[in-house]
């Protein structure tokens, strides 16, 4: 078809140059006079490809991002990359907003600029799985699983020290931030309860082995304040393996966002100012930060689309420490068993079967039965008496 069109153009110009009339040429070819004039004007004996189609792309695009803003985007990207900070399109957009760049490019525009300038390379040294099966908690709908972590000690402008308790809904990346003065029992209860009042009560709560979460190493069977709070509200509490913070990777990544985008950028001189800025940062993240895993939606938009009924605590005031001892429920510890076949439960050692060697196991403490049940790949393989303290 293309060859026929090119031959038609060549024939029309040859006939015109030979002196044939416009009317006869156009009538025989079924074309208009403007069409013939166009190809006669384009004819060149020195250019054999004169009859080829030319690009109709405009020489300039009035909507194209200016060269100055493209340069700013590239500079911000390289600056974040060399500092070891988050440097994707979301992080760059956040920086441009704080720099009050106008007009502000969209996320897709920033991505195209980075691709055009070949600035999409990733960092090296990423974690590679070891091939061991790890018990993963469900995270399909909101409030199925929350990851919680404590950041600190941090310091305001001056000698004022504080900690910050963070929670992230794994399914929709919705976050909660609650500053606390210390890691004491009542501070942890107040912070977790305050987050539940804003985010809802989760089915599963995953934490690391911070002493503030499990209680005291002197009394490992005493059930710390967070354990008791979760059991009283029917929440399954999960402790990740020691020295494996990447198992709480989503909240750990959010901790870096918190440090990079709030603590390193905003000067705060009082706890009241810290609380105000933390709530503002929480709202900004949940309402504007878009995730590719959510098909480009923000956490709040993803929550709205699910139409899930979120359960909140009935009382506004947090419970007071010490909480009453629960009489039923379970809490869980994930542990990696090494060659010595020893299971460490908050400093207390249990010998486990040899088939658990170099495997991840789940140690479930049943409060009602006062037993420690050991699971390998969801199959119970051992059971121990586990008398809990008051």
Task: Note down, in words, how this protein is organized.
By secondary structure, the protein is an alpha/beta fold. The chain has four domains: 2-42; 67-116; 145-306, 2-Layer Sandwich (Nucleotidyltransferase, domain 5), CATH 3.30.420.10; 330-385. The chain is 35% helix and 18% strand. The protein has twelve helices and eleven strands. It has helices at residues 2-17, 22-29, 33-42, 67-82, 89-98, 107-116, 185-199, 211-214, 225-232, 249-263, 271-288, 299-306; strands spanning 145-155, 161-169, 175-180, 204-207, 236-239, 330-337, 342-345, 348-351, 359-366, 371-376, 379-385. A nine-stranded mixed sheet has the order 3-2-1-4-5-6-9-10-11. Strand 7 (342-345) and strand 8 (348-351) form a beta hairpin. Helix 1 packs antiparallel against helix 2 (22-29) and helix 5 packs across helix 6 (107-116). The mean pLDDT is 85.
Write the layout of secondary structure elements.
Elements: H1 2-17, H2 22-29, H3 33-42, H4 67-82, H5 89-98, H6 107-116, E1 145-155, E2 161-169, E3 175-180, H7 185-199, E4 204-207, H8 211-214, H9 225-232, E5 236-239, H10 249-263, H11 271-288, H12 299-306, E6 330-337, E7 342-345, E8 348-351, E9 359-366, E10 371-376, E11 379-385
Parallel strand pairs: 1-4, 4-5, 5-6
Antiparallel strand pairs: 1-2, 2-3, 6-9, 7-8, 9-10, 10-11
């Amino acid at each position: 078809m293309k060859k026929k069109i090119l031959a038609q153009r060549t024939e029309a110009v040859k006939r015109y140059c030979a002196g044939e009339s416009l009317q006869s040429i156009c009538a025989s070819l079924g074309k208009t006079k403007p069409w013939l004039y166009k190809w006669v004007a384009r004819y060149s004996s020195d250019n054999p490809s004169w009859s080829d189609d030319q690009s109709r792309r405009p020489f300039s695009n009035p909507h194209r991002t200016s060269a100055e803003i493209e340069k700013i985007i590239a500079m911000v990207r390289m600056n974040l990359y060399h500092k070891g900070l988050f440097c994707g399109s979301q992080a760059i957009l956040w920086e441009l907003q704080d720099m009050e760049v106008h007009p502000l490019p969209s996320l897709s525009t920033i991505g195209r600029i980075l691709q055009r300038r070949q600035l999409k390379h990733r960092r090296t040294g990423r974690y590679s799985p070891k091939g061991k099966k790890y018990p993963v908690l469900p995270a399909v709908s909101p409030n199925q699983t929350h990851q919680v972590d404590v950041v600190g000690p941090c310091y305001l402008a001056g000698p004022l020290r504080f900690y910050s308790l963070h929670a992230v809904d794994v399914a929709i990346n919705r976050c909660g931030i609650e500053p606390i003065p210390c890691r004491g029992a009542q501070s942890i209860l107040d912070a977790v309860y305050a987050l539940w009042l804003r985010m809802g009560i989760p089915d599963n709560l995953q934490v690391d082995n911070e002493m503030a979460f499990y209680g005291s190493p002197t009394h490992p069977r005493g059930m710390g304040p967070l354990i008791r709070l979760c059991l009283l509200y029917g929440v399954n509490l999960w402790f990740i393996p020691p020295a494996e913070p990447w198992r709480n990777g989503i909240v750990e990544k959010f901790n870096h966002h918190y440090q990079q985008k709030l603590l390193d950028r905003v000067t705060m001189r009082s706890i009241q100012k810290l609380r105000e800025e933390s709530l503002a940062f929480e709202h900004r993240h949940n309402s504007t930060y878009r995730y590719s895993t959510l098909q480009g939606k923000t956490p709040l938009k993803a929550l709205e689309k699910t139409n899930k009924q979120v359960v909140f605590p009935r009382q506004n005031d947090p419970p007071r420490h010490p909480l009453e001892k629960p009489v039923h429920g379970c809490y869980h510890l994930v542990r990696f068993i090494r060659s010595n076949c020893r299971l460490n439960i908050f400093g207390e050692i249990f010998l486990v079967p040899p088939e658990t060697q170099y495997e991840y196991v789940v140690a479930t403490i049943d409060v009602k039965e006062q037993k420690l049940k050991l699971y390998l790949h969801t199959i119970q393989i051992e059971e121990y008496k586990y008398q809990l303290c008051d």
